[in-house]
Amino acid sequence: MLSVAKIQRRNAWRYYIRGVAFGDGRRPVGQSLKDAQELAGLPPGRWLGRGLRALGLTEGGQVSERQLELLFGEGRHPDADRIERGLLADGVDAATARRLTVLGQPIEEIEARKQTPLLGMDFTFRPQASLVVLWALGDATVRWVIERVHERAVATALRWLEEEVAETRWASGRGRAKTPALVVAAFRHIDNRDGLPLLHEHCLILNRVQRLGADGDPVWGAVDTYRLYQNVVAAGTFYTLAMTTEVCETLRLATVPREVTPGLRPVMEIAGVPEDLINWSASRRQRIEDALGVLTDQYVKDHGHLPGERGWHGLGWWAAQETRPAKKKPKPHQQLLAWWRASAILRFGQQLIDSLPDRCRAAGAAIRARVDPTVDVALAAVDVAAVVFTVREKFSRRHILAEARRHLLETLRGREFTRGLDDCIAHRALLRYSRRHTVTKPGRQAPAADRVTYTADFPVPHRWWIAPAEGTPPRESSRYERARVASLAVQNAIRDARIRAATATEATASASSAPADHRALEGETASAPHAADHLGRDAALTPAQRAAAVQTHHQAAMPEEYLEGRTTDPATWLRTPKNLDRLAAFTRAADTRRRAMEDRKAPATDPASPVDQHRQEHEQQRQQPDPGQGQGQGLRP
């Protein structure tokens, strides 16, 4: 999982020095960064990225307070003090000596144009909640494995951003060049602002990168941060896939889907970690849900209808910011570990906590015995293309690539796969099941492959209402649920066609006997029934047996909520007279509740209304954001 924030103000480095490089707390004035990190039991910040060589830094080296101040506070060389002293000794005037230590355009020139300089971006990587719980309550070996894998997964995701995404631009974007050399300062955190376990890594990406100028000499310029923001989801899924796969393979674990919010994509959690333990570590969730209820009521009062999916995301971010606690004084690592364990034992019992690693291994062994490390590339491409098209209608390769990585997470359940399989699935989905939407204008240069948009022609299911759980109102199907229905419909048709075609092939000993409509449906029914990445596939199986085995595997690996029919069973849709009567009753009750609330509340135009005063204060906060806060793709820890 990955969230993003901006580092914009000139004093933002102070926030990161005092509140990020030192954990989620405030460092006392006068205490050195190194002493504070040692006291809290936190590892020192380390340098990452291929761009370090140009600055005289080494990967894995320790980040100092002065280096952060120069790079992220002034946009200058991390060794600017020494360089400036040498230039002054050679007779260079002070202004010129300072200018020669600046990387790229000086911040003062940007501010003189009434613009806000972007100094860097804070990319925060964190694993799933179940992995955090296992790390916090497991033994020393489990913690060591998870921490080392987390470091490698972060480095892998950053390397992918360098090689595939990072670009520099100049001349107002008219000039562009690939820049596979970022400068990153990484800081490890182990808890959230409530003091509960939350392993995560703050990666401060410098908004400066080196390229070759027109004369062949290296020059410093700005990173195309828009491209980085566009690929946040793809980078986050890459980190989660790498992290989950290596941890599961090393500790012999497996994953299961956990539905956090009805209608949204399930999170693949570690099998064997109880739901109550996950909720124990997620201390802010209940506060966010309470605040979200208040904001939703106000939204309905202002607009006369419930918010859409985009509106829900906006209200969720708003609720998260409103309930975000203040920073606290960090506690030593060993003290936190002891407190977490004591708190969990007091609430859930010592037997559960002591047996948690063994419980997870047993659950993982059961899933590994049922789910083979098999990926049907053809069906995966159909699933990826259908889901992305139904959710977005128009999409790019980054959306397909992110969905391919999610497909591997859901299908393999933590099993290892061949490197590059996500790219293979994405390429096939674009080649076979998508059509290009971008049209190159005459006389214009063709756009790069990652800037081309696509669409598709999958049938989109109609919207439906889903019967409520006890005590909750009915809800409309989400875009993701409609995407799953569209994908499963096409996949089932292809599976049926494969099995029938393979059976006919065996009976007649001729591929030509396969029905023409089956060959048209999936252009491989006359050849091998699946193109699978299966490390131990038995080649002696007949085509029909292999096709049936793949179908069985996908049914076994499919998240349980899909097999139970919660999103695809027509019995849950509010289309029958009985269900429509229930919907009308819920509507009448909601109207009555809304009128009662309006009678109790003050008018919206009342300047003393606490809701309006609260919203006015929040708007002022949004106009002047805290340097450590920013709108990201997820909740910042």
From TrEMBL:
Put simply, this protein is called TrwC relaxase domain-containing protein
Query: Which SUPFAM superfamilies does the protein's record reference?
Result: Origin of replication-binding domain, RBD-like
Pfam annotation, one family = TrwC
Tell me the ranges covered by the TrwC relaxase domain, including all copies: 12-344
| TM helices/strands, residue ranges | none
Region called Disordered, residue ranges: 505-530, 543-576, 591-637
Write out the biased-composition intervals (Basic and acidic residues).
Answer: 591-603, 612-621
Q: Which domain of life is it from?
A: Bacteria
Compositional bias, Low complexity, is annotated for 505-515
